[in-house]
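Question thread 4412

I'm putting together a teaching handout and wanted feedback from people who do this every day. The idea is simple: show students a protein as raw sequence, then show them the C-alpha cells that encode its fold, then repeat with a second protein so they can compare. Below is the first pair exactly as I plan to print it.
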Amino acid sequence: MVSVGSDVWAVALQRGCRALLLGGASSLALLGTQAKAAAPAAGAVASTEEIVVTARRRAETVLKVPYNISAVSGGAIESKSLTTPNELLRTVPGVSVVDRGPRNAGQLDGARIRGINVDSAALGDYPVSSVSPLSTYINDTPVFANFLLKDLDRVEVLRGPQATLYGSGSLGGTVRYIQNEPDVNRFSGKVTSTQSYTANSDGAGWSGDLTLNVPLSSTLAVRGTVSRVYDPGFIDYPNLYKPGADGLQQTLNGASAPTASDYYRQNSVNDQRTWYGHGALLWRPTDALKLVFNYNYQDDHVGGRQAITEGTNGFGTPYGRYENGAVIKEPSAREVNVESLEATYDLGFATLTSSTSYYDHRGESITDNTGFYGHLLPTLPVGFLYYFTYYAPNRLPLTTFVNTYSERAVVEEARLASNSKPGALFDYVIGFYYEDQDRGAGSRNYLPGFEETYLQTPEADPTFVSGDRSFFYQRADRFRDVAGFGELTWHVSQKFDVTGGLRYFSDKSDVNATIGGAVLTRNNIYATNATHVSEDKPLGKVNLSYRLDDDNLAYATVAQGYRRGGSNAIPITGPQKEDASYLNYTSDSTVNYEIGVKGRTHGITYSLAAFYIDWSDVQVNIQTPTFGYYAVVNGKSAASRGVEAELSGKFTPSLAWTLGYAYTDASLTSDIITAHSQFNDTPYVAGLKGTMLPGVPEHTLNVSLNQTQMLGAGIRMTNRVVGYYQSSTRNGVTPGSQNVGLDPFSLWTLSSTLQWRSYEATLFVKNLFNAKAATGEFTQAFSGSDVAANFYGNDARTQIATPTTAGLTLSYRF
C-alpha cells in the first residue's frame, strides 16, 4: 500500500503544474497592480441587473424578479472554467453540493438549496424511489441529466419552492439551464481544447469542443456543439481480486497475506470518457412565430468511484490518501437523450408558448458490497448464514450489486403570458401541463462462484441452487401528471404589485415490482406486487413587492412546494416480507415564508433575503429494519430557516468583486419512527428531532475577484480568483454508524486569460490548496473490513473533491 499524501504536489509539478501554478501566482500579483482601464473582457461576469431571465415565464432582468434568484451568464461559466453543474452551483450563494464525481452523476441530484434534503449524503449507488426535492430544467424540459456545461446562454437558480409554475419536485427550488439559440444573422463558431493534470493521476486529461452556428436563410439557422472529455482518474485500487482461469476470484489456500497473489493493484481507476452533443434548429417564418428544435445527448463511461478509504485493510495496512479498498472495480455507464420542440407566437397582447419534450435516460453501475454484507448478515436469521457456512471460508468472499435505472417521458406544456406594457393594470401567465413518465429500477446481487463452491460440499443438493444470483428486484413506475396553473399580478400602483399564483394538479402512479432470490432458493420469487397511488390538490403562492425607487425593490412571499408520493419495491408476503406499512409513501410539501430586498446602490448590486420553510410529511430513503430493503417512508416535519446575501461591485473600473453568504439552520422538528422489525418489537427510528439535515452546511461563503487590463498590441489579460467555503455537515439523520460529521472545507480556483483578436488562452488551477472536501461517507462500521468473513478489503468510502488540477485551455472564435 503506497501513501501519496506528501508526494501529490511533486508528481503534479513534474507533469507541468509548476508552470501553470506560476501563471496563477502571477495572476494574483497582478491583482495588486494598477491596471489600465479596459472594457470588460469577452465572457466576463456581467452585472447582476444585466442578465435577462425568464423565471416568471417572461423576459425581465434579475432585479425585477420579486424573489431570491441568481443567474449566471454563459460567459461567466466559460471565464471561470466551470465544466460541471457541481462546479457551477458552488458559485451560487446558499447552494451546497454532495460531490460524487462523474460516477452515476446523472442518477441522483446532489444539490441542496435552503437545506431541503433529508437523505443520507452517502447515497449514490442505487436508484431511490422518491424524486429529487429540486426541479431541474433543460430549457423548458423538466429533466435532471447533469449535462456538461456547454454553449449555455445562462443558468437560473430559483431559491425556495416554485410549485406554481414548476410543479412537482420543486420543494427547495428550481435550476434552469438555458442554451444558446441559433442565430440567423451570422455564421460563427468556436474551437476549444483543454489539457490538464490532476494530482495523483497517471496521465493528462483532455477535452475538445466544437461549436458552429450556421444561418441557412434569413429565417432558418442551425447550431451545434460536440464535446469529447477524457480524464485518466486519480483513485488507486491497491487490493483488487486477481481472477483465476475461470474469471472468478481465486479460492483461498490457507492464510492470505497482503502480498499474496490473490490481489493486484491498479492506479487511476476512476477514469472518465464522455461524449456530449447538442443540436438546435431555429425557424422564424414570420416576426411573430418562432420554432426551436433542441436535441441533447450525453454518454458517460466511468471506471470507478471518486471516493477514498480511510483506515486499514483486514491485514492492518493503512490506505494511502487516494486509495480505495474495494476488491473489484466499480464502473458506471449511462446514456441520455433529450429532444424538445418549443414554439412561441406573439399575439400582441400576449405570447403563446408550446413546449413538447421527450427524453430517455438510462444507466448501470457495479458495486462491491462485500463489507456491507459481512457486517449485516450476522444480525439476520440463521437461514442467511449460508454466506459464512459455504462461501466465505472456501473462496475470497465477494458480494456484488449490479444496479440499473431508466427514465423516459413525454412532456407538454402550453402557456399564455401577457406582454407586460407600461401602465397595464394586470399581468398574467396561464398554462396547462401534462407528463407521462416511465421509470425503471433494478438491482441484482451476486455471490460470484457460489454455486461452484456449494456443489463441492458434502451436503450439496443440486436441486437447491440456481447460479450465483442471491437477490434481485425490478421496479417499473408509470407516472402521469395533469395540471393547470396560473399567476396574476395586479399593479396596484406604479410601485406596489400583488401577485397570486395557483396550480391544481392530478397525478397517478402505478408501480409493479418483483422481488426474489436464487442462491439456495431455486429461483424463488419472494413477492410480486402492484400498487396505485393518486392525488390531486391545489398549490398556491402570494407575493407582495414594493419598488423603493427605480433601482431597489422590497418583497415578501408565501409559496408552497410539493413532491409526489409513490410505492416501494418491497415484499409484504413470503419469506422476506416486511411490514405492509412500508409499501406506500405519501407526498410531502413545503411552505416558504420569505422577505427580501434587492437592487443597486452606490455602485453595489445586492440581494438580501430571510426565509423560513416548514416541511411536512418529510420523505426519507431508508433501509427497512428486517431485511434491509431500500424504501421511502414519511416523517412528520422538518424546518429550515436562514438568510442569504449576494453582493457585487467594482473596486476600480477594471477590478470587479462578488461576495455571497448564506446561513441555513435545517433540522428535523419531530422524530421519524417507522414499523418494527419482524425479529423484535422495537420500533425503527429513522431520525430524531433536532437532528441537522444531512449535506447541509450551516454557513457557506462565495467570493470572487475579476481583473482586466490591456497589455498592449491589442492583448487583454483577465485574472480571476474564485473561492468557496462551507462549514461542517452531517452524513445522515438515522441514528447509528452512518450518522457522522463531515469537516468544513474551502475550494479555490485561480485563472488567467490572454485574449488577442479571436484567440484566447486560459491557465487555471482548481482546488489550489488540495482540499479533501468530503461530502459523503460509508463508514467503517457500516461496510469496512470483516476478517471474520475472510474479507480483507475495505468498502468504507469517503466521497471527495477532485484534487489539485492545473490546465491550459486554448480557443479560437470565428
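The second pair follows. I'd like the answer to focus on this one:
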Amino acid sequence: MKTDELREAYLDFFASKGCVRRASDVLVPRDDPTVLFTPAGMNQFKREFMGLGDPSFRKAATCQKCIRTGDIENVGKTPRHMTFFEMLGNFSFGDYFKRDAIHWAWEFLTKTLSIPRERLTFTVYLDDDEAYDIWHKEVGVPAERIKRMGEDDNFWPAGAPTHGPNGVCGPCSEIFYHGDGIEEVEIWNLVFTQFNRVGPGQLEPLPQKNIDTGMGLERAAAALQGVPSNFEIDIFRPMVAAAADVLGIDYAKVKDTLDGVRIRRAADHARALTFCIHENVQPGPEKQGYVIRRLLRRAVLDAYQMGQREPFLHKLPPVIAEAMQAGYPELKDSVPRIQNVIREEEERFLRNLENGIGRLGETFRKTRAGGSDVIAGADAFDLHSTYGIPVEVTESLATDQNLRVDMEGFKKAQEEFSKISRGTAEAADVFALSPLDTLKEAYHHGSEFLGYEGTEAEGKVIGILEQNALAQSARETPGGPPIALILDRSPFYAESGGQVGDVGTIRGEGFEFTVEDTKKDRDFILHIGRVAKGEVDLNATATATVDASRRQAIRRAHSATHLLHRALHEHLGKHAQQAGSKVEPDRLRFDFANPEAVGAERLEKIENTVNQLVMTGSAVNWKHMPIAEAKALGAMALFGEKYPDVVRVVQMGDFSKELCGGTHLDNVGQVGLFKILGEESVAAGTRRITALTGQAALDFVNEEEDVLAQAAAALRVPQAQVGARIAALLEEIKTLKKQATQRKAEPTEKVSVDELVAGARPVNSATVVVRAVPGANPDEMRVLIDGLRRKVKDGLAVLLLSEAEGKVSLVAGLSKDLVDKGLHAGNWLKKVAPVVGGGGGGRPDLAQAGGKDPAKIPDAIEAALQAIEASLGA
C-alpha cells in the first residue's frame, strides 16, 4: 500500500465510524504557547478534551503534520527518527472509549490493511485488566502476544502515577508490527485518558473519558511496504535520491556509511524546511526560526564535510512538493519562495562556515598555547552559536588533534539557549486552564461579533477579567492597571489577521468604560481598558460603541492590502505571496515573498496599479462558505494560518478574492489615495512594503509638496528643476573637495623613509617602527610603509599615526615573513586604535584605523610598542 493510500484509508475508515474528518493543524499553533511546533495529533483538540471546544462533534480523525526536535542527532542514523512526520490519529471527547478504540484498531489493521494477525503484538499497562481482556477475550489475541508493561512504558504521561505531573492522564496500549527481515516496530499507540492524578499514586476517574491515538504514517507505511526504514518508503525515496544527486554521490554505494546518514538527514531536514517555510516560518535567531536555521545549517555542514562548497539544499523543495502533492497540493505554489529563502540562508551560512573553520583552527592553537589539551566549553559553544559548527563536529576534529572538549562547560554555556530549541511542552502545561476556561463552561460559544453590520450594539457583561482573575465588579481606579470587559455580543473587532483591535467606549447604567484595545481569547472578545466613571457589575446591560472614524481608517488600510496583494501578483508574479501584515488606521505594512528588492520603477508601477483599482470604485462584497468551496472559487489564503470549516470570503470587483475575517470598505473608491512610503527586506526571501491610505496619504503628499516648494525657493529654481540643481551642486562640491585635497599643504614636519629606518627599534631580530607623522594623510602613510618594505626586506613591523582636523589616522604594515609567523596588522591595530577612541582593522599585511582623541597619540604609541613586542616574543 502506498503512503498516500494509507493516509486516505485511515481517514476514510474512521469517518465510517462517525469520526469527523478534520484538517491538519498548522505546524506553529497560533493559540498554544506551550509548544513551538505541533508535536502530535491531539494538540489541536486540547479544548475538546477539556470539554470546552466545538460542541458540533465528539469524535474526530486527522492526519497531522508534526515536528519534533528532541532526537535531531538520531535523524538519518536510525530507521525511524524523523524531524517532520505525519501522525494519523483518531480521538474521542467523551464519546467512544476503550472497547471501540481497540476493536476499531484491530479491524483497521487486519481487515482494511489485511495485516496477518501473527505479525502484530500488543502491550497494555500493568494494571489495565480492562484493555487486556478486550484484546485477549474479545478480539482473540493469544496471551503470549500481549505484554503488560509498567508506567514508564505504557502510561501517559510516562511515569505519571508515581512521578506526576498532576492532572489528566491514563494508561495506553501499544501495537507493534514485525515481518520478514523487519525488526519489531511500534506503529500505533492508543491512549485512554480516564484519570485525574491528584497526588502520588492517587488517580481519580474522570467524568469524561477520552481517546487519543497516534499512528506514525511513515512507520506504518514502511511496515506495509516491507522496507526496514522510513527513508525507503515510496514518498521518501525520491527525496533521498534527489539529495544524493545534487551532491553528486551514488547513494547505493554510501548507504551504510556516514555519508549515507548525511544524505538521509539532508532529505529529512529539507522536508521539514519546506513545510515550515511554506507556513511562513523563517530562519532566525530564536524560537521556531532558531530550530529551522539549526536544521538547515546541519544539512549544509553535512554536505560541507562531503566536499560540497556550493548551496544545494534549495534544489530539493520541488522534489519534496511533488512527492507530497497528494496530501498537500498547496506546497507547489510556494516552491519558488521556499527555494529563495533556503538559498539565501545557505549562502550566508557558507560564508560564516569558512570563517568558522578558520576560527576552529585558532581555537585549537589557543588551547595548545595555553598548555592545555581541553577546549573550553565557552569556546565550543561560540563555534556552535556564532558559526553553526555543532559541538560533536568540534569534538571529532579535536580528537584528531589529540584534544577534547569540556562538555560540562559547553552545557553550561548552552543553558540559556536550551528552551528555544525544545519542540515539545511539559505534560503539566498541556491542559493548563485559564479563568476564561471557567467562563467558557457557561458561555460555550464565546462572544458574538456584530462588527460587520455596524459600530454600535447592545450587549450584556458576562465577564470581568481583573489581574488574570474573574471578578464580580470593577470600579473607577485612576492610574490603575487595565482590565478586560467581556460582552456576550460586541461590535468591537479583536486584533486578528494583522488588523489592530478597535477602541471606543462601553456605557451602561452608572458606568462608562474606555476601551483602549480589543483582543480575542478562547472565542471571547476582550475589551481592554479602564472604568472611566462609576462601577460596572457582572450581567449589566451595556451599549458598546466603536470609534467609527478610526474604524473607517482601518477599513481603508485593510482593503488597500488586498489591492496591493493583487498589484504585487501583476507586477512581480504569483510567487509574491502574502507573508504577514499589520493594518492600522490609514497605515499598512505588508510582507510578501520576493527574492530581491522591488526597485523604484516597479514600486511606482505597483502604486499606480493600486490607485487605478481604487478609482474603479468597485464594490466590496463578502459571504461565508465552506473552505473547500472558497478554494475552488480561487480565493487566496494566507499560508500558515488555521482556517475554520466555514470561512469568510471578501471579494473586490472581479480582481480580488481572499479569505479574510477583517473589516472592509463598501467599495474600493473609499480608500481615497494609496501612497507607498518604502520597501525593505525583513528576512531571507521576504520583503516589506509600508504604505498610507486616505487622510494619512493626503497629509504625507501635502508635506512632501511643502518641502519641495521650500527647496525650490532656497535653490531659486522651479520645482521641476530641483533634482537637477541638487545633482549639479553635489558634483560641484565633489570637484571642490578634490581640488582642496590636491592643494593640501606639505607636512610641516617632512619625514623620510631613511629617517624612519634610523629611528627603528630592533626587537628579537625584527625591525619595529612606531611613530607619529604630523600632517600626513592615510595615503601618504601607506607610501611610507611601502618605502620601508623596499628598504627592510624581512622582519618589518611598522605603525604610523597622524592628526588631521581633530581626528587620528593609523596605518600598520607587516612584512610577509612576520605574517607567515601568525602576526596580523589588523589585530595589532585593534589593540591600539581604542586608545585614541577609535577602531578599525584590515588585512594581515596592511590595515587602517581611525580615532577621535589626538591627545592620546603618545599613549597609543606606547600601546603599539608593547603589543608588537609581545607578539614578537620580547
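Top answer:
Good format. For the second protein you could add a caption like this: Confidence is low (pLDDT under 50) at residues 419-431. The longest strand covers residues 182-199.
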